[in-house]
Design a protein that fits this description.
This protein is an alpha/beta fold. The strands form five sheets. The protein has an eight-stranded parallel sheet with strand order 11-10-9-5-2-1-13-12, covered by helices on one side. It has a five-stranded antiparallel sheet with strand order 14-15-16-20-18. It has a three-stranded antiparallel sheet with strand order 6-8-7, with no helix packed on it. A hairpin with a 4-residue loop joins strand 15 and strand 16. The longest helix has 16 residues. The two termini are about 30 Å apart. The structure holds 1-deoxynojirimycin. The site of 1-deoxynojirimycin (NOJ) has 9 residues, from loops.
Length: about 500
């Protein structure tokens, strides 16, 4: 299981109201207690923060708001001592407009770095093509001094790097080496499906309408670039890993980014973020993933991250549903990614207009993590960059640790049960017949077997299961099995053996 840390919101140790790397290091014991195998840390590199770190102005240094390079080294060493692997968030598609490469590229049409980015003439007064940026508007900005447009698939402060230029490839590979040499275990790679581009930058079909480019850009040039990245990462000792954000909507398209086992180790698949909370909806998601990824592309599972509403909020706010979702997330075939705070059952913060800071309206899920019940909730100040999530006075680590029936203890139990079962870790998944409101599947290896049942409904439901089974864990605080699920209950069954 990979736990996503959004460092701005994890824990502040300095009193500026923004989380930092020493804050992450200070809670490794908690992550170890929870049963986390690896953390993915969202960007902490130098950045003007137009997109809160996804606009990087120096890939080889830590932004002062998060600490220093020494803090990053210390975090890595301490995580490894705790048995936790560390994935960094590498942003290859774009830099900040304040990155020295772009500053130089922008300075003149004859700059040696002009071709490190996409500069084009417009079509009369219009942009060079019809691509739309992810956060609205055209994906081109006109630069008065040199009278050309530059491409940015996100904010104007995030110009796209030209990966068609070998010097860019070399410079970005050097960034990977810089961090691999320091001992990182791999990378979550931001919108990696965007790096290959046809240098002609042709219009997208007009019949697609004004949809943003990010969800449809699928250029074959990216695959060769990924193979080079994979070779570089694999040349390091140990099991270094890449998980790429491929923000396409078709699982079959995502599949191609695994290559023949020579591109990404794993790719995100955001299908579950749009899945309705119904047994039929989830049956379909599992069928699509199994069919379209096949045997060779190892799936990933994401219910929440720093770009979307927390799933508790998205699915209606109930504790029962978030507990059942925990059982689902941690028992599917593939690697689960858990966004910080999901283990506490957090909901999105309600952010009043005057405190909104994100250009894409994602503040709610990025609220600070409450560690204690005091007014500053364990942070160095109560005056945090975003407001606390709802019920922080009771939904916090301190309180939930003290309650054996809390969702926090459920997550810990699920992770322990997963670790102990080869069937849950890497076994096959087989969907089983079940009543309408229930999703049922078997996870199995030749020597190990578990059955998972999830009741999406609000009523008790009988579920006939052949053979003898007992409840290993339930989303309710007491695990029991007598052939029926309670409302919104999810259980993991294991074969019953007498004695
Ligand atoms: C995806 C990241 O998850 C998101 O937070 C960011 O805004 C865009 N990529 C641009 O880097």
């Amino acid at each position: 299981m990979v736990y996503q840390i959004y460092p701005r919101s994890f824990l502040d140790t300095t009193g500026d109201g923004i989380g930092d790397l020493p804050g992450v290091a200070a809670r490794l014991a908690y992550l170890r207690w929870l049963g986390v195998d690896a953390v993915w840390v969202s960007p902490f590199f130098r950045s003007p923060m137009a997109d809160f770190g996804y606009d990087i102005s120096d890939y080889r240094d830590v932004d002062p708001v998060f600490g220093t390079l020494d803090d990053a080294d210390h975090l890595l060493a301490a995580a490894h001592t705790a048995g936790i692997r560390v994935l960094l968030d590498w942003v290859p598609n774009h830099t900040s407009d304040q990155h020295p490469w772009f500053v130089e590229s922008r300075s003149s049409r004859h700059s040696p770095k002009r071709d490190w980015y996409y500069w084009r003439d417009g079509r009369n007064a219009a942009p060079p093509n019809n691509w739309r940026a992810a956060f609205g508007g055209p994906s081109w900005t006109f630069d008065e001094p040199t009278q050309q447009w530059y491409l940015h698939l996100f904010l104007p402060q995030q110009p796209d790097l030209n990966w068609g230029n070998p010097a860019v490839v070399g410079a970005m590979h050097a960034v990977l080496r810089f961090w691999l040499d320091r001992g990182v275990d791999g990378f979550r790679i931001d919108v990696v499906h965007l790096i290959g581009k046809d240098p002609a930058l042709p219009d997208q079909p007009v019949e697609l309408g004004p949809i943003d480019r990010v969800g449809i850009h699928d250029d074959p040039r990216t695959h060769a670039l990924l193979r080079q990245i994979r070779r570089l990462v694999d040349s390091y000792p140990g099991d270094r890993v890449t998980v790429g954000e491929v923000n396409l909507h078709q699982t079959s398209a995502i599949r191609s980014y695994y290559g023949a086992g020579d591109e990404l180790h794993m790719a995100f698949n955001f299908l579950p973020l749009a899945a309705p909370w119904t047994a039929a909806g989830w049956r379909e998601v599992i069928e699509v993933v199994e069919r379209d990824l096949g045997r060779d592309a190892w799936p990933t599972w994401v219910l929440s991250n720093h770009d979307s509403s927390r799933h508790r909020t998205r699915l209606g706010g109930s504790e029962g549903v978030s507990r059942a979702a925990a059982v689902l997330l941690l028992t599917l075939r593939g690697t689960p990614f858990l966004f910080q705070g999901e283990e506490l059952g957090l909901e999105d913060a309600v952010v009043p207009p005057e405190r909104r800071v994100d250009p894409a309206g994602r503040d709610g899920c990025r609220a600070p993590i409450p560690w204690t019940r005091t007014s500053a909730h364990g942070w160095a100040t109560a005056d945090t960059w975003l407001p606390w999530p709802p019920y922080a006075e009771s939904r916090n680590v301190e309180d939930e640790l003290s309650q054996p029936g809390s969702i926090l203890h459920l997550y810990r139990r699920l992770l322990a049960v997963r670790r102990a079962s080869p069937a849950l870790r890497h076994g096959d998944i087989t969907l089983l017949d079940a009543p309408d409101a229930v999703l049922a599947y078997r996870r199995s290896t030749h020597a190990d077997e578990r059955i998972v049942l999830v009741n999406f409904g609000d009523a008790r439901v009988d579920v006939p299961v052949n053979g003898h089974w007992k409840a290993l864990v339930s989303s309710y605080p007491d695990a029991r099995w007598s052939g029926a699920l309670r409302p919104r209950e999810a259980v993991i069954l294991q074969p019953y053996t007498a004695g």
